[in-house]
Amino acid sequence: MPAVTEAPRRLLQDCCSVLDHQTPGGLCGCCWALRPRYKRLVDNIFPEDPEEGLVKANMEKLTFFALSAPEKLDRIAAYLSERLTRELNRHRYGYVCIAMEAMEQLLLACHCQSINLLVESFLSTLRLLLEADKPHLHILATNSFVKFANIEEDTPSYHRSYDFFVSRFSEMCHSDHEDLDTRNKIRVSGIRGLQGVVRKTVDDELQVNIWEPRHMDGLFSAFPSLFSGSPAEQTEVCFRELLCRAAYGHINNAIKPVLMHLDSHSLWQGRGFAVQCFQIIMYSIQSQHSHLVIQQLLGHLDANSRSPASVRAGIVEVLSEAAVIEATGSVGPTVLEVFNTLLRQLRQSVDYQLTGYYDNAGKHKTSSIEEKKLQDAVIKTIGSFANTLPIYQRSEVMLFIMGKIPVPGIYPALGSPNSGSNLLTALPSSFLEPLLSFTLMEDPEIRLLVLSILTLLIDRRHNASRLYLKFKIKHDVFVFMQHAQRLYRHVYLASREENSGRSHYQALFTLLAVLSVELANEEVVVDLIRLILALQEMTLSNQECLSVFNRCGIHALCAAFLNLLSQLGPPPTLHQHITQVIESREKDAPHLLPEVVFCDKPRLPEGELKVDEALLFIQSKICEALAGSSYSTHCERFNTPYTPQLTGTQTRVTSHPLFSRHVHFSRSVRGIWGDFRDG
């Protein structure tokens, strides 16, 4: 009886075995022997127990057969795919893994010219696994795809498409699986899959469509969202590899999805994330393409002109960091356009700050604090870009900036500058005249600002910070010689301003000190002494409407500068005269010395200021002190008292709204010219 009931069950098993293409052990075994050899070889690689893994000896036989008869590769691959599909439908995942391993080994063993016979079935099998709802199958398929991507092919692939894989791998990058470990594994697989797609397509002329926007949106939008999450390190490695393979014509398509991602997720605010993304981009792309990234950012900044200040500041901050990374001089062919865009943003921000709204309709409010942060970021970025340029281009940029600034009431130029100066292109009259005109503006803060700028431009050897320490005296007779008279004139006129304070006189002293140290020439020293004597005479004149503080401040300025100048080269007899006058002031008129006038609570005389001759620096004694020295050849110039050469009518320069935020211009100048003085 048991033998009777066992027969139907054994018959059913044999039939299933035939359908599964396994070797039957009973009466239907003859059917298996009639099957094609390649199918029998494929069937033999599967063990009875899937945990035993691929039967290596039989796999070697299958590989040898495939190499010996490459025309059967397509049928072998199709049958393997069919067998894998059947096992997958029956949830026999062990056999699925064995089938994939067999396909991988065949791919690696086949010659390049015959690999296309396998690929179609291989890719269709991977699609099947990626469409399944099992994470481990997604990971299995991705690993196989990566191995396939690393195979170099010599023959073109005419009918191959990777659109599905780009889409699926991008989805895997954003996996939200409930298990954290599984989620990370899926994301890593998605990233590696995208990396494999690019490796496989970037050098294939028949697959250039990978760089089209529809693919780039999927590829590059997957990465930024993972930098702040997990697995960030793997994401960065893959992101860099994708970018380093981008050619000139592909940069824009690669950057646009990143910009869109940062916009849609409001990631410009704050410093970290957007900067990190573009640091990776700038370090990864080929250096000759970096200016394309800059242009993309500038265009995006313009497109966000009516966005909140925090968004604009975030884009500008990224621009600043990109400029630091960018290779020197590679801003691109439109250098001035970079600065034009940034200056336009600066002016626009000032307008927004004044109106309180960052749109013309007056619907979206902005705060002064937010706009100031943006302005500071713009100024920093201007400096960062300028420092990547050679010296001659920095001069052009400075002229360009000055051309964007309204400068009413400019004094006419004083004749033609001296020829032969090695800094003629660095500080031409078209730059210096507008700058000097601001020393006469009504706003005392702007005047102070311009004095500091002039000092910065002249002080190429950083002597301003060493005024009370050790000076670096260099005899560079060509420095600013063509502009000396202009500088003297504006120092004289700036000293007459009634609303000047302690900081103005200190700035004037610093400017004069730097001039004397940088020039250190006999003719210049004599002219500076003439200027000081003219300032001293101005304080004694009743025609000048100066307060007691202003008169004492100018006297203190003259004393401080002459004391310094007398120690920089002139004969000791000059220093003796200067010292005698200073000692007399210490005894009888301390209010004429800087330590008294420029303190927090200056002690000034009441009523009209009167100064005895013993407290003044005398021209005749100065000439006597210089006699017999190398300075004596220029002493005849003392016979002509210094008078500022003015042509035309003097007009006071009024403030422009842009300069009510005076620190903007100061910092932009410092950013551009901070390194110029060392050049």
UniProtKB/TrEMBL annotation:
Judging by the UniProt lineage, the source's domain of life is: Eukaryota
Query: Which InterPro entries does the record match to this protein?
Result: ARM-type_fold, EFR3-like_ARM, EFR3_Homologs
Q: Give the Pfam families listed for this entry.
A: EFR3_ARM
Q: Which GO terms describe its biological process?
A: protein localization to plasma membrane
Q: Which GO terms describe its cellular component?
A: plasma membrane
Q: Which protein family is it in? A: Belongs to the EFR3 family.
In its UniProt entry, what is this protein called? EFR3 homolog B
